[in-house]
Amino acid sequence: MSYQWNWGILLSAVSTGEPTTYLGWFMDGLKATVTLSLAAWIIALIAGSLFGILRTLPNKWLSGLGAVYVAVFRNIPLIVQFFIWYFVLPELVPPSLGAWFKGLPPLIQFFSSAVVCLGLFTGARICEQVRTGILALPPGQKNAALALGFTLPQTYRYVLLPNAYRIIVPPLTSEFLNIFKNSAVASTIGLLELSAQARQLSDYTAHTYESFIIVTACYALINAVVMLFMRWVERTSRLPGQIGGK
Amino acid sequence: MKLKKIVVALMAAGTLTFSYAQAQQAGTSTLQKIKDTGTISLGHRESSIPFSYYADNQQVVGYSHEYAMQIVKAIEKELNKPQLEVKLTPITSQNRIPLIQNGTIDLECGSTTNNLERQQQVAFSNTIFVVSTRLLTRVDSGVKDFADLKGKTVATTAGTTSERILRAMNQDKKLGMNIISAKDHSEAFLMLETGRSVAFMMDDALLAGERAKAKDPSKFVIVGTPQSQEAYGCMLRKNDPAFKKLVDDTIAKLQTSGEGSKIYQKWFQKPIPPRNLNLNFPPSEELKALFKSPNDQAKG
Amino acid sequence: MYQFNWSGITSSLPTLAQGMLITVQITAAAVIVGIIWGTILALLRLSPIKPLAWFAKCYVTIFRSIPLVMVLLWFFLLVPQLLKSLLDLPPDIDIRFVSAIIAFSLFEAAYYSEIIRAGIQSVPRGQVYAANALGMTYMQSMRLVVLPQAFRAMVPLLLTQGIVLFQDTALVYVIGLADFFRTATNIGERDGQLVEMVLFAGACYFVICLFASTLVRRFQKRYSR
To answer: How far apart are CA A227 and CA A229, in angstroms?
Structure first.
């Protein structure tokens, strides 16, 4: 077998007649990966914070709810969760609702299933970190706030959470990196994100190695950019008076 | 900087691999390789009913698979090695060509169309089947032909000729279809069955196979003007005339001796595993013509 | 409402069990090779010899910045040729199985090495000085003093990573290897029972992983005292 390298193939027009180049397909994939990851990240932060706070509350039922959420979403493989959101759930909801969802344009179906799935999956991890962050604070902070007449919600809003989030920036960084990598699993339900484009490109161009290399390099680049960004976040959010602080 | 390093490293790894592969394969024909290892690697499909698919317990069966097994027999005879070990590797539309090229599989008989584009990369045997690409839809969907698909969602299988035709058609005729490219035929059919798409475009024989699988086959119908004729061939590595001749001769002999028609009846006009369904798919004129004069020509 | 039909599961249990065997084999191989190779990487990373430390750092960074899906696809592409020329394996071996095991082992090693490096660094420096003062070489002090202590502290983390790995093996779906999950979806798509099969597979993973993580937590409680 002899392989002819041809990077120029990426700039040639696609063979389906669509007005784009193979590089255009690649860019579409990149866009899908970035949008999916960022949208899922927002859901993950909201769900993770909410359930993380629940887990630290004195109410047994509420903290139990948080524990169940984490147990379910952390003990089922991500790919299975993708299949459940996309293939299984629309069949289990009332038929009219399922039919409505399945009648939506396919891209919207892929995308909404993927965002919710990836968001709640990552949320379960963030939940644990939020809980750890809150529990790591000295108990005196909570007691002092309550003694000053803060209600419990106020205590969380003004005292506990601002401190806890700053503590957990480093683990959040690695979750933020993970969400980009995990978004590749969405290709298994049919979303044409970056890793799915690697396969489509290699199929249409017959230049497997060029396609895989450019996509792999792109993931590495995303990783580097996210890392730099989070380092900046970490620097600006440091607490004065702590070891890492100013 | 880091990116550049990674790219260089990957390219180095790639180049290294190719030089190994070249050294490995220079002067080694497929027949020689089979003789040396006592093993032949066949690629098969997991859900191309009735060509190549799993019956039960992951056992591979099908029309094309019978051709493959006949070819294995012919190789055993040629090499005088009666007990060749047959290694089966499931392949998809998207990875079959790289797997032939990199030597993972020696021969693939499934539902692979012989076309000029692919001939640049791999070789094809004599044609084993002829199909036309059409649509499978629900009886009550109102879809009679491709023009009715305007603005609707259509499923097809990624990496197939149907996918290319469908996308080009969408572009040329401004149909505004949503196209779902499923990973394999059974996933594409699932899209149709669960109501995610109104039609499934694929080779008609495969559509008949998928329809037979449905909970209620009478709810589905094959419609539409054939968009292309496709000749299925077994795929093998390029530039290996001895192996190709053996494969071609075996297929020609099956087809002219009448054995080919028997295999046809077994898979298309009689109940087949795993659930004893009958495809009721009579042979086309093109297929009858092929059996009279076997050839390895791609169709237009 | 959806009409569940669970009848297909009993008849496909033997096939599903074969799939589970593949899943377990990949997990076991990747845990063992991953920990060994991960320990070596961690030691290289901490070694005073710059090129070795640089190599380990690059290795870990590269593997940690690429999605597992891409790693699996790469190895599926590259492994057949590398194997044939380097290892000369018997030809009847399933190449997808081998490439999955290699991909997981090399990929997980990057993650294990970070856990192990943190474990080694958590051992008080005085221990190394004391070992040096006793006349031990670098290797001896690592093997006899540092690593045993580091590993004891790391066991829960390594086990948890093993559970994560067990879940990650389901991704061999992308190279078509019939592990537990792929077997389940294959049967589901063939028999029109994808909903039941996916739910069943999810439930199996859930029970196994929950059980395993509970065990790890018990273990951790007992030994952290």
So the answer is: 5
